[in-house]
Automatic annotation (TrEMBL), chains A, B, C, D:
GO molecular function, one term: voltage-gated potassium channel activity
Transmembrane segment boundaries: 6-24, 31-51, 71-92, 136-156, 215-237
InterPro entries: cNMP-bd_dom (IPR000595), cNMP-bd_dom_sf (IPR018490), Ion_trans_dom (IPR005821), K_chnl_volt-dep_EAG/ELK/ERG (IPR003938), KAT/AKT (IPR045319), RmlC-like_jellyroll (IPR014710)
Subunit organization: The potassium channel is composed of a homo- or heterotetrameric complex of pore-forming subunits.
SMART domains linked to this entry: cNMP
Organism: Musa troglodytarum (fe'i banana)
Identification of the protein by name: Potassium channel
Role this protein plays: Potassium channel.
Residue stretches making up the Cyclic nucleotide-binding domain: 314-408
The family this protein is said to belong to: Belongs to the potassium channel family. Plant (TC 1.A.1.4) subfamily.
Keyword Ion transport on entry: yes
Topology within the bilayer: Multi-pass membrane protein
Amino acid sequence: MFLMVLVLYSSWICPFEFAFLHYLPTTMFLVDNIVNSFFAIDIALTFFVAFVDPKSYLLVDEPKRIAVRYLSTWFIFDACSTFPFQTISFFFSRHGNSLGFKLLSMLRLWRLHRVGSLFARLEKDIRFNYFWTRCAKLFSVTLLAVHFSGCFYYMIADRYPDPKRTWIGAVIPNFREDNLWIRYVTAIYWSITTLTTTGYGDLHAENTGEMLFDIFYMFFNLALTAYLIGNMTNLVVHGTSRTKTFRDTFQAASEFASRNKLPRHVEEQMLSHICLRFKTEELKQQETLDGLPKAIRSSIAECLFYPIVEKVYLFQGASFNLIFQLVTEMQADYFPPKEDVILQNEALTDLYIIVSGQIFIIKGLIIYNLQVQGRLIAGEVFGEIGVLCHIPQPFTIRTTELAQILRLQSAVLFNTIRENRQDATIVMRNLFQVNPIIDQHCLTK
Amino acid sequence: MFLMVLVLYSSWICPFEFAFLHYLPTTMFLVDNIVNSFFAIDIALTFFVAFVDPKSYLLVDEPKRIAVRYLSTWFIFDACSTFPFQTISFFFSRHGNSLGFKLLSMLRLWRLHRVGSLFARLEKDIRFNYFWTRCAKLFSVTLLAVHFSGCFYYMIADRYPDPKRTWIGAVIPNFREDNLWIRYVTAIYWSITTLTTTGYGDLHAENTGEMLFDIFYMFFNLALTAYLIGNMTNLVVHGTSRTKTFRDTFQAASEFASRNKLPRHVEEQMLSHICLRFKTEELKQQETLDGLPKAIRSSIAECLFYPIVEKVYLFQGASFNLIFQLVTEMQADYFPPKEDVILQNEALTDLYIIVSGQIFIIKGLIIYNLQVQGRLIAGEVFGEIGVLCHIPQPFTIRTTELAQILRLQSAVLFNTIRENRQDATIVMRNLFQVNPIIDQHCLTK
Amino acid sequence: MFLMVLVLYSSWICPFEFAFLHYLPTTMFLVDNIVNSFFAIDIALTFFVAFVDPKSYLLVDEPKRIAVRYLSTWFIFDACSTFPFQTISFFFSRHGNSLGFKLLSMLRLWRLHRVGSLFARLEKDIRFNYFWTRCAKLFSVTLLAVHFSGCFYYMIADRYPDPKRTWIGAVIPNFREDNLWIRYVTAIYWSITTLTTTGYGDLHAENTGEMLFDIFYMFFNLALTAYLIGNMTNLVVHGTSRTKTFRDTFQAASEFASRNKLPRHVEEQMLSHICLRFKTEELKQQETLDGLPKAIRSSIAECLFYPIVEKVYLFQGASFNLIFQLVTEMQADYFPPKEDVILQNEALTDLYIIVSGQIFIIKGLIIYNLQVQGRLIAGEVFGEIGVLCHIPQPFTIRTTELAQILRLQSAVLFNTIRENRQDATIVMRNLFQVNPIIDQHCLTK
Amino acid sequence: MFLMVLVLYSSWICPFEFAFLHYLPTTMFLVDNIVNSFFAIDIALTFFVAFVDPKSYLLVDEPKRIAVRYLSTWFIFDACSTFPFQTISFFFSRHGNSLGFKLLSMLRLWRLHRVGSLFARLEKDIRFNYFWTRCAKLFSVTLLAVHFSGCFYYMIADRYPDPKRTWIGAVIPNFREDNLWIRYVTAIYWSITTLTTTGYGDLHAENTGEMLFDIFYMFFNLALTAYLIGNMTNLVVHGTSRTKTFRDTFQAASEFASRNKLPRHVEEQMLSHICLRFKTEELKQQETLDGLPKAIRSSIAECLFYPIVEKVYLFQGASFNLIFQLVTEMQADYFPPKEDVILQNEALTDLYIIVSGQIFIIKGLIIYNLQVQGRLIAGEVFGEIGVLCHIPQPFTIRTTELAQILRLQSAVLFNTIRENRQDATIVMRNLFQVNPIIDQHCLTK
């Protein structure tokens, strides 16, 4: 990170020195050389940093292979961008400001590629917001473009023989005597006016050289502006996609309800379920979990549901194996308040265990008046009689508040129990102890 | 909503006062204080408004927790933006127009964050069109940006010692004597000219301070323009996606038909089916329903199809349970006019019940001349003999007008009937009573 | 379509008359009235045109309901836009050029909504290219915007008391004497310069009224430009999506091959298969077909494959029913030249019938030298012995040229044959007659 | 490729000659004719180049059909663009610079369509980066647009009677005497200033003709800019989609872990698995392979896994057939270091074979302290006892470094073994020889 500050400093100072400073002040010369020495140290260190082989995805830490890889790829650029050309130029010319050596010192801009790779890493780091990381990157690129072209455009004017026939001289005739700040701001002002295509026209190219530079700069601007807009569009599309999906789903459900004249309570259940699903981002998380291998999913299920399931009366005394295998096949769903989980008379295909929230047992057909028969709280199970004894559901089950409920498919339950004989008798004994009445009914079936 | 009007008023008047009014008129001063008092009341009310906990999704209405949450988040900003700095400034300076106090009164712009959260809520509300809500938001942002920068740019010129060397003074030399309206329109004109990057150049920065502000404003404009375009692109892509999907599907079908030289009537059936599916948005609604939990889907199916299915002759006298369980497994499809629902000789896998529309029974192979054998209307069933007796379909069934037809998979029908023995005999008796001839044929099988 | 030309004419002439013509020439007055009368006739006709009810998707042709719907929706606008205000104005003022009546005649622009609905219809018509339809629409909108604002801006200058203080008068002092063409071109030139945000600045607002109009126009331009770019992006994304998908798939396959060092001939088979699949747009068409109801898919399969399958030796003498049911379950695939269809020793799960192209039977393991054993042409079947007698595939089957091959799952084949006892014996007899050697082998199994 | 250079040369020189050169120098005249002759040769060659029929996807090499197709499509354009109008014009006028013949020579621009088809081909070639190919195309289009309009705009000024009233004459009064380079740069400078909508205004239209051209050019620019931005957006969206998907998946997993307070080691396993999956692009490659026909997938599986599987002790001595059939059903997964492959007590559904990497066998429940029981390396198999003897997994299996593991579903294994009786006994004998203890246990089951 400290190196990044140096990179930014040197990439900013480099074109500035190039354009505005005829004679380098001693302080700046010193700072430049100190910065350079830091980069020299960094080059030396690179020979000892392991890298990941892109083919086998393994870490390589052999010094020889590291050296071979570095020397054959970026070493030459790094070395050139650190070599102190300017210091050497003192031995040749008196002022060290000959154009050739100045151009060589522009090689330091190569260092900017480090900033590029920093941003590439930041973009993949979820601790930073993608939108702002990306914006910061684009802003840096724009800022550097404005700075570079401003400096370069000033240099063209500065070296033109007739000051009146330059873009700045046409407005400020004796601009060379003006102080540095005014000249720099004017150059940046022209640069940004051109880059944003505002083009007031108060400062414009006067001679062929300036026109040529302006032509190239405008071509570059066209590409840069398009790139900026493209990136912003990308970010906006990405940022609003959730809201759009939610709206589309909600609207489709709402239209379906109004077109088919569904009763008010069914429509409300539909819409509140959709709202909840989007609020909890259930879909996205479910998709992520589905992509994981089985062992990890089992670990997760064990952590989350084992403590709840082992306390359920049905599995009291059952072996660790049975509960573990059942838990790995369970699915957790959220239900908003006042939603039906099972309807009366439905054919049951799942067993339900309440993780949190409260639930009412309701008797009566949905359309007529309803009668609350009881309530269930976290840790209780429902649907077990229906599933284990093949009886259609005798009650409607409805949530009273936000509830998280585990679901286990009856086919999975049967298969797992069948493979663990001893557990099967334990489970059935538990069932009959708690629900003595259904004992007979169930056995006859 | 009333508060929103006040927010917009205060965010508009605030920079305007700041830039154009040296001495605040008494009426405005009064209005400002009244508006401020409304916001003070609002701050007090916030202490009594419940909020939803972002972790557990539960409503919190304990006054203590509300207070802690508010005091630790936004209270300090709200308080600062409501504190009457300007009134206090009267005690210190005579005119109350010192720059410091004016800057403090800019804190009122903090109130704008309320508009942001209003729009965020509106975007999720399907009663409002997404396109226009989003456009209104972007337009507000642009308008405020233009207003702010116009005011600020005027203030720079107004406070510059030499009026001739300012952006407005270069064009209107004695601009300070001009009336307020002309000065305001000119400032806004410059601001919008720069924001849209038109940049006529008739008004442009003249001194370094103006250039600096212009540089920052143009950077901001670049980002804003990109953001506007990004949003518009997003909206356009979203808005046209249905048409595009329709075109792609239609074209793929059309190309398939022409490449394989399909007969005219088959091609027409294909294309009209695709048109109908897109017109009724069947796909989107089906997807929405598939995402709902089973109990809600059962409720919907019961509301929609129970009254129709219970009147079908096949299920006369059957138990509520049986019909309810069948209904929850049914699927509704739309068929355009003149489309074949079943072809003669096809192996049947579904039972069909007509909800609306009219249908012809046709005998003969498709390629030769056809012969209408009968017609079926809403409430009638077809395919029942084929499914229950395993006979290949003896007739082609073709719609004559737009028809909605329920489909029930034969596997589901068998499973459900098998679990309800008594109903099975009722259903078979109904079948043989209505179709006496097939009795023998079916039994031998 | 004829009406569309009139609409475009009247929407172009309307602001032109408004701005540039103080006294309406007689010819134009006549043409205007003729055009108006056409629209009056169209209004009358609308009362007799049936419409589709948006709820039930049925055509409504009751004159009363049509009238009620039209009168309650668009009639009032249509009537106002056709009412000859200009003709009436002659009775009041002498020249018929009072501003009020001119503004009323702007109501004719309402007619433009017809162009909008025309384009909406064209976009859904696959005979027209989506890209160009959309471009034409956007171009029309831009053209009208440029024309309108050009006319309006000229009118502001024309009515301003001091000609020198207007945008056009500052450049052409006595512009009112110039000919119409020059004035119109100048106005359009200013308009397009502003709309595209070029903003040369040679023509710019001079007084407050012009500035105000310019402010509104630039706001509009911002929205329009964003809308244009959004649309273009949408079209580009849509247009290049196929190429991108192709590249991604191809690259993934290519990388997979090079990373795993797959032999050359396997890689070539992979890549040429992917190329062919994209060239024939197999995927898109398959998706379209999958969305169609079963009866249509059966019709298509019958048209395409029945003539081929009934000639296959295996099904000689089999009933229409059997072949029809098999045909509806078949899938057609394209294979590029030199691709393996089945490998030697593979466990067979499908029966293959060649529709077109030529195929080699090859003996030997893939890695060693191969030996051509025979060839198969269109109408021949392979894999039948393996599927019907459960023998692993004795030969590799490889295409020599582009081949279309039907595939039938063995499970489907068995199920269909089992339900048609008589056909089963015919099929087995055919098999043993042609392949006498395998008779014994197969029966013992 | 050589022809492409000629095409670019002639499309660049053509408008340049047209606008700037009154009298064509002899050298250029010669070069023009040489270039023309190359194109004439190319036309002749086209008659002998085979083409692919767009309907049947077959190569057509009949000379007659090629000729018919070419003559009926593009021949007339190619011929016109190659016909030496300029040479002929010498016979009529003395200088060969009459406007008519110059316009005819503009027909050469037709040749540009070749560049279009070259780019279309390059875009589909994965050896070239899509981003840069597309950028190169857009840059060429922009460059040509700038060149054409610059030349044309200069020509308008050049032919205008009053040099002072032209866009260039207003700035450089005696521009016709200036050297070619200055005039060309100025024209290009104006052109690019307008195209990028910078519009400084130092050069602007002065007469109606110039205004008209400028109007058309600005309309074109609007479309071109929108097209450029659209393309750039498309490229950016395409280029960042992988990073975005990765971030979304990673974030969803991370949020899920923190919300459910998963233990640290489970969260780490989840996240490192997701990282690895994206690094190896597993998903994209898996999707590609799934789209290939079965024979190719079998070939790939054989190349990759046969040498490993045949050395596994379980399949020592088994027939080629058995191993081949098993190999074609195997799936390869990557596991990051320290990830659990199977948990203790899990019900096994797969057999695993290690391709590369090292694996630990761990005893003990995950939550308590663990005990390393052994290690497995490449070529070893695990889970075989559990799968073949139906015993729940006795150990946790965890990777120590990046491992590639083959997975075979137990159902597939049983089916394949059942169909090869002799192999079944070999496999079971191998199993018991290596694991003598489990012999009894397994047999009793």
